[in-house]
Amino acid sequence: MRNSVLFILLVILIASCDSKQVYDSYKSVPNKWHKDSVISFKIHPPDTLNPYNLYVNLRNNNDYMYSNLFLIVEMKFPHGKTIKDTLEYKMAKPNGEFLGTGFAEIKENKLWYKENVVFQESGEYNVNIQQAMRENGKVNGIVNLEGITDIGFRIEKPAAK
């Protein structure tokens, strides 16, 4: 009984430390991330007045063979507008050591998507994330990308100035 009370208190303490978090969700990627597989998140922003910072979060393991990552991120607004961005992120140092946090094989990366976004339309937003990796000199994309284990999307309140 005492251990379960301590565990619950620890979970509450950890959760309360992240005061900037507005939305944070992850979805697992099966063994390989197929180029046509889209990871989707349904977002209900808390208001239409305040600015927020948006992030793509991902976890990778040692099976990831590249020093960078290309993603296509699409945001669909409640009233039909769509914004689509092709983004590139650095994933490793020149010596091959992965960036991100974590002591074990899994590294967690918090990647900037957009800064100071005001969700001016009330309602449901959809965020779709797709890998867009290609090998140097090749036209066709990598069909099955290995080493990405989870994709997430996060909304935060900006840091107080």
TrEMBL record:
<protein>
    <submittedName>
        <fullName>Gliding motility lipoprotein GldH</fullName>
    </submittedName>
</protein>
<dbReference type="InterPro" id="IPR020018">
    <property type="entry name" value="Motility-assoc_lipoprot_GldH"/>
</dbReference>
<dbReference type="Pfam" id="PF14109">
    <property type="entry name" value="GldH_lipo"/>
</dbReference>
<keyword id="KW-0449">Lipoprotein</keyword>
